[in-house]
Amino acid sequence: MTRKPLRLVAxxxxxxxxxxxxxxxxxxxxxxxxxxxDSGDSGDSGDSGDSGDSGDSGDSGDSGxxxxxxxxxxNEIVLGFADGFGGNNWRLVTTETGRREAAxxxxxxELIYTDGQGDLQKSISDIQGLVSQGADAVVVFPDxxxxxxxxxxxxxxxxxVTVPYRVYPGGEDGVDYTAYIAxxxxxxxxxxxxxxxxxxxxxxxxxxxxxxxGNSQGLDxxxxxxxxxxxxxxxxxxxxxEPFEVTNWDPALAQEVLTAAVAKYGCIDAIAYDFGxxxxxxxxxxxxxxxxxxALATSDGNILAxxxxxxxxxxxxFDLMTVQTGNDHARTAIDYAVAVAxxxxxxxxxxxxxxxxxxxxxxxxxxxCRPDLPDFAFLSAELVTAEDQATLLQ
Length: 394
Known about the structure:
- The protein is of the alpha/beta class.
- The chain has 2 domains: 7-180 and 326-353, Response regulator (Rossmann fold); 185-323, Rossmann fold, CATH 3.40.50.
- The protein is built from 10 helices and 17 strands.
- β5, α1 (89-103) and β6 form a beta-alpha-beta unit.
- α2 (120-132) runs parallel beside α3.
- The radius of gyration is 21 Å and the shape is globular.
- The model is unreliable at 1-65 (pLDDT under 50).
């Protein structure tokens, strides 16, 4: 079939250098622009857009001759895609993932992207602006968590299909918004647990790390991990702060946390952390202390895989398992919002799970370093190829 152009209004910086921090940090910049193409090209352009500012944005993409996905119904819509913060590499890849997913549905005639820059008031204004611009559905990454709930309630009350994802904003499906597309972080905790039991069957010390204090992802991951390993008869000793050491997914803070942990506890047998790339700068602390590198259960990133490869080449290998970093969570949220707004088939599950991606203990799941790609490329992203990320993250 022939795809009609999808009009994209996007934030500045999709092709710019990004902060080396994870998915729930703050900072960034925002403008808007529009492009349209039925060529399916994923390149960037720099035309001016509706807000009068300038920036970089990918082409809209196209479904070509592929079948229309079941979640794409016949009703034409304008789709809003609101980030609380869009300025790091993980967000750039996630935004591009959502953009490409939306482009698979010919009923999505316009996608308007906003970047809240980590600022609550701007994030609120962005969502309100999407509603006033006539968005039929909005997908929201609510970095501000419950502080953004009243704005979600306003959008939902105005008749807009409202779908927050990944960060729990409080509230209830069908009352405060259409549906919350949750990350099943407890599944990550279970995956980490089972792998640690294999990597360290005799037990040992376990340090748990996550992002900001109280974040739902870290709480769910840590809760399941502690319950699962705690059932092993006391073989595993949790060290550090409960429920997890706070790092804000910031490499500099992660290094501070690990330095302090090694100084206090000595060698550590295993670490569970939900943003692996932020660990790399801190891992040399173990060598400084004369300790072997711990078993790492974490999320993927090219910088981490290449560190593992470098250490292995030097005869200093360590056990590593990663789950997908989760860029494709945006696809689940886009699919759900578009399905409800266009009259398509609503996905069976309103949750997203990370699959295991790499496992140094399993030859069928090798740790893969791509030295030709940026450090903060994510090979587990399914819709945005590694080569496309190299262009996007320049």
